[in-house]
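New to this. Help decode the following:
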Amino acid sequence: MKVLHISAECFPVAKVGGLADVVGALPKYQKKIGVDAEVIMPFYDNNYTESKKFVNIFESELDLGDRKYIYQILKLKSKLGFPLFLVKIPELLDRKYVYGFEDDSERFIAFQIAVLDWVLQSKKKPDLIHCHDYHTGFVPFMISHSVKYKTLERIPTVLTIHNAQYQGQFSYDKLYLLPEFNLNKIGLLDWYGQINPLATAIKCAWKVTTVSPSYSEELAIKSNGLEGLLLHEKAKLLGILNGIDSKVWNPEKDKLISKNYSIKTVQSGKKASKNKLCEQFGLDNTKPLFSFIGRLVYEKGADLFPDAFYKALLNHDINILVLGSGDKNVEANLKGLNVPFKGKYNSFIGYDEALAHEIYAGSDFLLMPSRVEPCGLNQMYSLRYGTIPIVRRIGGLKDTVIDIGDKGGFGICHNQTSVDDILYSIGRAVEFYKNKKGFKKNREICMKIDHSWDKSAKEYISLYKSLI
């Protein structure tokens, strides 16, 4: 079985969020169990691509409305555990960043056209095409209804919704960018008077998956305007929990942390990373360390952090460390805490992969008070490193973290994204930290939890087989 994953992100080539981690790991685990899984993504002009070698395997010209672009399909020479192909389109895709440009609609439409043009001429076509998020949302539509791709219409398509908040919608004045199609099918592109790539994919894909069972249920209630559509298409909706790459995220072999450790040596291993973090950021290594890693945006509850952290640091003898970027006001307010709480608080505005690994290893608790969390991978990383997640019961967080007050519990959970809930949970964590014996045992329980891709990869393969 040959499966082609199409995505805007893939770790380690280009990462903005969890999408990259999923696309960088799932194909690897699928190959382990006999699926010929490949990934194709845009070529970005970033540090990774500058440092790697590629083979040009195909070159052609694509039509984007009334403009023509020369493009190349490059194959990465390095080994990632699966073949990786990149679409290089000068003037459109070869930029440093993945998103945030005024012509993002044009960029990702061109990317999808290039992918399908390449597939069209390939001798060995995929048995199934797996699309990820709105950036690939026109692929199921074009395969089914574009004149040019008529011979591909029997290839099954699967869409995975990683985050329904982002849909890529744009006005009809850009309709001409899409390849010729049967205009009787124009309604498949429409959602509330705009062309909506995510809505289009939900309508046209053979199956739609979400990245956790709970998120699948939540989308029918809250999905940024797609509630009615997802309710209508619920028969083809399936929630499959994401996994993590247990080889990349492995404290026993992780080269990015101060000292490798196992369940038996978790205390000394985490202490080494905590000592390094406290030295680097001017914190006290005798106090419990609470951390946040991620985007400083509303959906993560980051707007509440300045107030919540101010009150928590006044009321508790703790350390707090933040790694992330996003809303500029939140960034400024978090930086403002550095002075009054010097020695107890610090922040790194930006992102650093090595630092993230060290924080997972050296922290005692990881904060995730999300308003929206389709799956969440950070809580799984933290568990792998013996760091106790503090989460809101939402989406994949609800599916992966059980409160210490419940049977079989190992994390700390709260019901709302609010300053009071964050403060209450931090207070519970501080009390739990004082129970040295129970805290140590809980760390070991966390590390034994298996969130690798093995099970989820098999679920996807069963889904593929049902469609082929």
